Amino acid sequence: MKTALRFIALVMLAAILAACARETVEEPEAPEPPPTQEPAEEPETDRLDPRDFTDPRNLDNSDSVLSQRVVYFEFDRSNVRAEFRPIIEAHAEYLRANSSARVMLEGHADERGSREYNLGLGERRGNSVEELLRANDVPSRQIEVVSYGEERPVCRESNEDCWQRNRRVEIVYTAR
Amino acid sequence: MFSSARSLLSSITTVSLLLLALLVSAPAAAELRIEIVDGVEGAMPIAVAPFAWNADMPEPDAGVAEIVSADLHRSGLFDPMEEEEMVDRPSDPTEVRFGTWRLLKVDHLVVGSVRETNDGMGYEIEYHLLDVHSGRVLFSQAMTVGLGDLRFGAHRVADAVYEELMGVPGAFATRIAYVAVRGSGEDERFELIVADADGHNPQTVVRNSQPIMSPTWSPDARKIAYVSFATGRSQVIVQNLYTGQNRVVSSGKGINGAPAFSPDGEKLAVSLSRSGSPEIWLIDLETGSREQLTHHWAINTEPTFSPDGERIYFTSDRAGRPQIYVMDTAGGDPERVTWEGRYNAHASFGLEERYLAVIYSEGGEDYRIAIHDRETERLRVLSDGRLDESPSFAPNGSMVLYAKRREGRSELAAVSADGRVRQRLVLSEGDDVREPAWSPLIR
Q1: Could you tell me if the ipTM is greater than 0.85?
Q2: A158 to B315: CB separation less than 8 angstroms, yes or no
Q3: A4 CA: distance to closest CA in chain B (Å)
Q4: CA distance A115 to A165
Q5: For A117, which of B211, B345, B408 is closest by C-beta distance?
Q6: Which of A112, A119, A158 sits opposite B257 (nearest CB)?
Q7: B229 vs A115: CB contact, 8 Å cut-off?
């Protein structure tokens, strides 16, 4: 139950962040950040904008969509749900701007059914994310898909809470 | 009454199993303990009298008779008498007082002896099967085994008894392979383990921090093909259990999975996604040449050869959900085999092409092991779990070994092909055990 709530919270956070991103584009006068202790010489351009998807620092910035690197799927499905598109689009922007960056798309399945079939399913999910990146003009040389099927679960209980967390593609940067 | 004073020793076989030049120097894997969950009512009463021990070496804790009794009991078809209940301990047909055994309501009696071979390099096991009611000797046989192979010899005795009384070969003197997972997180280790069919003598063949999948036996039971993620990507590897040599057979882009040896041992069918989606390919193990057999955008995986090697059965979701299809090994259009249920996958054969063991789901949440009968087109569900998988038929078609989830971990189970006998195969430790593969009959 706790895990389910955490999962829902995660999805909601993604939605809110996506909404924020949209909103602030229309309204550029975002509130000034509070004054900091930073030295005065610090150039203003170094201030981190979480909506700058070309900045590598945002990969580790929990305020940025770029820090989200897991895409979840429905049972036995491999189509990317609408709510995860902004995440993939953010990574597409990053990959376009950073041509030496490389991603491994790790496809995973839940434990139900045959392991070898699930290996195929994990790959299909990885391919779906790859296609979206490609549709957003990311060159194929920056992307690799690997499927682990059901062999690398993040959650080991046999219930839907767990299964939905295991049906996923992890976007792993092998080079930033 | 008892006609031939002493029958001729009908066969002398030499079983020399210098098994596994211990490929991984590591603590021995824990043994599987096999428990009967459900047996057959009216199982055949039989007695296996303690074998006479005529050797200088000390007798092992588990004697030959004890092992034979345990094998027969595990099959669920026999009800062996406890040793303590035996009033008589004959070790030769001439010593048997049939009246006594009739009073004990035993149908058959096994007697025998073990002696050291003249060169001191092994044991000769002599064994006889007697029909208690007629007082006849059904067979008398002997075999020699190496000093370390007494257990295996005992399994062969059980095989002979099973075959004489059941009309099909026994599968006690066989092995099983499975994947065990120990630890978690950073310490997680995957192990490919080979053990005797009764769970004894487990040997770790491969150990890795990355997943190991889909072990499968060569027809001579000397090699195992499996899927390794040791490099972070899938590879198909063939491992020789006797020499310790291993060979990467396939490591192309995408999935390299689901190996299956052809019955002649010359080819390996695999599922490779190098062309974009998983397709069935045939790799010639001699020349390394490969041929693509399926051409369909769907998932095509889990190839398995018909027992005669003429056809390949595989799993495909070309019709939307996974179902079993068949095609000629030489190529040609696949034909759909299973129609019942939403999900059928991972076909496995025993002796006959008529019966396929599969993972089956009706449409609800449960995945179970079922046998599809090609002749009647009927499907019979054998297992009762929620998440049963990886069915592997015994080479004599008597049982199906599979993996099930229980309390958050995977364990092995077996069920007789008629669904009446159920076994649990449990590790003493709490490791996760999965993907069992029953070896072919070992000649």
Answers
A1: yes
A2: no
A3: 18
A4: 17
A5: B345
A6: A119
A7: no
Contact assessment for residue B72 and residue B78, using Cβ atoms and an 8 Å cutoff: yes
**CA distance to B258, B355, B383, B411, B414, per residue, from B417 (Å):** 24, 9, 10, 19, 9
- Which site among A111, A112, A117 would you substitute to test the B interface, given the most B Cβ atoms closer than 10 Å to its Cβ? A117
- Specify whether the CB–CB gap between A175 and A101 falls below 8 A: yes
Task: Fold for B175-438, please state it.
Answer: Neuraminidase (2.120.10)
Going from N- to C-terminal start, the domains of chain B cover 12-166, 175-438
Say if CB A143 and CB A134 are below 8 A apart.
yes
Q: What is the pLDDT of residues B321-338, one digit of tens each?
A: 999 999 999 988 999 999
Query: Can you tell me the distance from the alpha carbon of B259 to that of B280, in angstroms, rounded to the nearest whole number?
Result: 10
Determine, for residues A117 and B301 on separate chains, whether the beta-carbon distance falls below 8 Å. yes
Kindly give, in sequence order, each residue whose CB lies less than 8 Å from that of residue B222, ignoring residues fewer than 6 positions away. B240, B241, B242
CA nearest to A126 within chain B? B254
Q: What is the pLDDT of residues B103-132, one digit of tens each?
A: 999 999 999 999 999 999 999 999 999 999
Helix axes A85-97, A2-26, angle to 10 degrees: 60
Residue among B368, B413, B388 at smallest CA distance from B32: B413
> How many domains in chain A?
1
- Closest residue in chain A to residue B229, using alpha carbons only: A148
DSSP bridge partners of B368: B360
Please state which architecture CATH assigns to domain B12-166: 3-Layer(aba) Sandwich (3.40)
Per the structure, the complete domain to which residue A142 belongs is given by: 2-26+60-175
**Which residues of A are less than 8 Å from B389 in CB distance?**
113-115
* Residue partners of B3: CB distance under 8 A and separation at least 6: B136, B137
